Amino acid sequence: MKINSELIQASNHFINPLNERQLDLRGIIINLCQGKKISAIENLGATLDFFDHIDLGDNEIKKLGNLTLLKRLRTLNLSNNRISKIIDVSESLPALENLILMNNRLADFSEMYSLRNCKKLKRLILHGNLITQQPKYRLQIISILPQLKVLDFNKITHKEKEEAKEFQTEEQQDYLKLINLKDGNFDEQMVKKLIENAKSFEQLNQLDQLMKLHKGNGQQE
């Protein structure tokens, strides 16, 4: 099932209790109408940036990404999908405050760095993902995403914020430096170190591509 203007027009939309304009694309509703579920985020530009809240829960989406610019969207519900990959959506969703990723397939902290540039993100729900079973899970997330106010329905305390600052590992600090690197400040030795210590295939692939890109730029010069 693909998202298109006809599907959006046929779906339920209303003013929710938080006074948000909400579009309901939950899988159970689509399933009753069409017999299929949404498998990818696409064509949300067809909403004409009319909604504050979009509900895509109970579908078969595998990746958070591929979003067009939606300046108005503040809440995105992707609970009960198959998401294991997150792409930086900060430029597409500049007003995003609430992201619901409950009951997906997120297992690696490296995916959380893709949300770091979402400066207005206040509430994140990851309950039901494998990542929540990692040691010191809350402190890990808070250290990566210091802009958060609420994590998994619980308010982040001042004590947790202070502990997260101390908890930040050398590897995390290097990774944060890496994702903010300018071309002129490329540190090949640091990238090599991160490649050696990579804890996921996805992170290793990203670092390897960065190294190749830098070498390619050097050859052109």
In a few lines, what is going on in this structure?
With 221 residues, the chain is of the alpha/beta class. Helix content is 32%, strand content 13%. The chain has helices spanning 5-10, 27-34, 137-144, 158-167, 170-179, 188-196, 201-220, and strands at 12-15, 21-24, 53-55, 63-64, 75-77, 85-86, 98-100, 123-125, 150-151, 154-155.
The percentage of residues in β strands lies in 5-15%
Shape: globular
Low-confidence stretches: none
Oligomer: single chain
Q: What's the N-to-C terminus distance?
A: 46 Å
Radius of gyration: 19 Å
Count every beta strand, where a strand is a DSSP E run of 2 or more residues: 10
Q: What is the H/E string?
A: HEEHEEEEEEHEEHHHH
Strand order of the largest sheet: 1-2-3-5-7-8-9-10
What is the helix fraction of residues, given as a range? 25-40%
> Strand count, sense and closure of the main sheet?
8 strands, mixed
> With helices defined by DSSP (H or I, 4 residues minimum), what is the helix count?
7
SS content category = alpha/beta
The chain-level mean pLDDT equals 84
Structural description of this entry:
There is one protein chain. With 221 residues, this protein is of the alpha/beta class. It is built from seven helices and ten strands. It has helices spanning 5-10, 27-34, 137-144, 158-167, 170-179, 188-196, 201-220, and strands spanning 12-15, 21-24, 53-55, 63-64, 75-77, 85-86, 98-100, 123-125, 150-151, 154-155. Strands 1-2-3-5-7-8-9-10 form an eight-stranded mixed β-sheet. Strands 4-6 form a two-stranded parallel sheet. Helix 2 links the parallel strand 2 and strand 3 (53-55). It is globular, with a radius of gyration of 19 Å. The relative contact order is 0.08. The mean pLDDT is 84.
